[in-house]
Write a structure and sequence with these properties.
The protein is of the alpha/beta class and 321 residues long. 49% of the residues lie in helices and 12% in strands. Among the domains are: 41-139, no CATH class; 224-320, no CATH class. This is CD-NTase associated protein 4-like DNA endonuclease domain-containing protein.
């Protein structure tokens, strides 16, 4: 997704919709749809063609092969578009190069694919092999996180220039949270390309807008040295200070996430509590909020963990004063 953004593509992307990743372009009226199935291996051993054609035994007959299942996308809801299926691996293929079309494989391998899919699919169309691709990333599992952050760094340089000072890890979590939220939309409710766009996709505009929001957001983690000193004087024990301190970075990320409606609701409730209680000191505000945690987190179960809740309340107090 980030590579497409850097290249200037006007993309839409859905994660975990039947296949791992679906790219559509252009945004307003998608004509091209790429369904990507991603497989990763810890070892550096190559992937064989048989891996994509194998069919495991099932109670009745056999399960579909990976390539056979990918063929379903040609007749799915995007069948009116130019559909490509892309089989992605982080390690090399034993039967082709790093970016190969199925019809460009050795004649014996093309023949093997046709024979296996003809047995598996009653309506197998060999012409569609022209739109089946094999792609390797060359990124090991151990290097994936650092690779991702390298791409994020390039993205931020393009959008904001050098020396932007924005927390890229917090922004990355924000985007991942939005992707996870859309992943939770049941794929069975998607009946058209428009449904897919509206319910499952993020796009170029979303990435650009959230980067600008992150750059313009003045909310920062409170000075925990001052916070800890005040709470320690009020009788907090060291272990509780440590437990809350570990939650601060996640709480800041949620507090500043414009797509997180639940965090926004908790923020609104705590702000109201702050003004209702007319709290003048942090220890008193935290004690009051904690005594009302059930009410303040009603319907927000992810935020009811004691020390996360307290960390979030510290941020609200810090912003309100």
């Amino acid at each position: 997704m980030i590579k497409k953004h850097l290249e200037g593509a006007d993309y839409l992307v859905a994660f975990e919709y039947h296949d791992d990743v679906v790219f559509m372009e252009p945004n307003a009226d998608p004509q091209n749809v790429d369904f990507c199935q991603v497989k990763t291996k810890k070892s550096s051993s190559s992937v064989t063609l048989g891996f994509y054609l194998a069919r495991a035994k099932a109670k009745e007959g056999r399960k579909p092969s990976i390539l056979g299942k990918m063929y379903e996308n040609f007749d799915g809801i995007c069948s009116g578009n130019k559909v490509k299926t892309v089989l992605v691996s982080n390690v090399p293929f034993s039967f082709c190069g790093s970016n190969s079309r199925a019809t460009d494989l050795k004649a014996s391998d093309v023949k093997k694919i046709k024979e296996k899919l003809s047995e598996e699919l009653s309506d197998f169309d060999e012409e569609r092999l022209n739109n089946v691709y094999f792609l390797t990333t060359g990124v090991s599992l151990d290097a994936m996180q650092s690779f991702l952050m390298g791409e994020v760094s390039e993205l931020f340089k393009m959008e904001l220039g050098e020396g932007h000072g924005v927390n890229m890890h917090a922004w990355t979590r924000l985007v991942q949270n939005e992707i996870n939220r859309k992943n939770n939309v049941d794929s069975e409710t998607i009946s058209s390309t428009d449904d897919l766009k509206a319910k499952k996709c993020v796009d170029r505009k979303f990435l650009s807008n959230t980067i600008q929001l992150a750059a313009n957001n003045t909310t920062r983690a409170p000075d925990m040295t001052l916070v800890n000193a005040e709470l320690k004087e009020a009788g907090w024990v060291a272990v509780d200070l440590m437990k809350m301190g570990k939650k601060i970075s996640n709480a800041v990320a949620d507090y500043t996430n414009p797509t997180n409606g639940d965090a926004e609701e908790l923020k609104t409730r705590l702000e109201h509590h702050f003004h209702t209680e007319a709290a003048e000191a942090l220890p008193g505000f935290l004690a009051s909020a904690l005594s009302n945690i059930a009410q303040l987190t009603d319907g927000l179960p992810l935020y009811s963990e004691k020390f996360y809740f307290l960390a979030f309340a510290v941020i609200v107090f810090n912003e309100e004063i």
